[in-house]
Amino acid sequence: MDDDGQARTGRANARHLTQSIDKLLASGQVTEEEAARLHAALEQGGRDAVVRDIRVRHAEAALAGAVQDGRMTQHEADGYLDRLRAGEHSRSLRAHLRGFRRPRGPRATGPGQAG
Fold it and tell me: What is the largest CA-CA distance in the chain?
């Protein structure tokens, strides 16, 4: 791809990311401050660090609930948070952490689930 083609692709990616940030903000998945940091990171670099911070914030909330409910110890939660802060975000870690999230809003229940 020539330089002009790469520039167009880069602009399209930036536009897509900007729209994604706006959707995350509208849905409450990121705060105003996090959205502003993400927008700045798109222009100045450092997007990975901002995304990591958001992932840690989400995990802190989910893991705090798991500790409070007795589904894990604080030591276990701290281990997961340390891994995230170090930049780990493997598919297996994401899948495991998803199990500790509380559902947002009303949801239809599936087989074997209380409604």
Answer: 57
- pTM value is 0.64
Please give the sequence-ordered ranges of beta strands (E in DSSP) within 18-69, or none if there are none. none
Please tell me the chain's helix, strand, coil percentages from 3-state DSSP, rounded to the nearest 5. Answer: 70, 0, 30
Low-confidence spans in the chain with pLDDT less than 50: 1, 3, 6-7, 106-115
- Where do we find the tokens 């170090």? 86
Residue type present at position 9: T
* Distance of alpha carbon 88 from alpha carbon 108, whole angstroms: 32
CA–CA gap between residue 103 and residue 109 (Å, rounded): 11
DSSP code string of 58-108:
HHHHHHHHHHHTTSS-HHHHHHHHHHHHTT---HHHHHHHHTTPPPPS---
Q: What is the rounded CA–CA span in Å between residue 88 and residue 72? A: 20
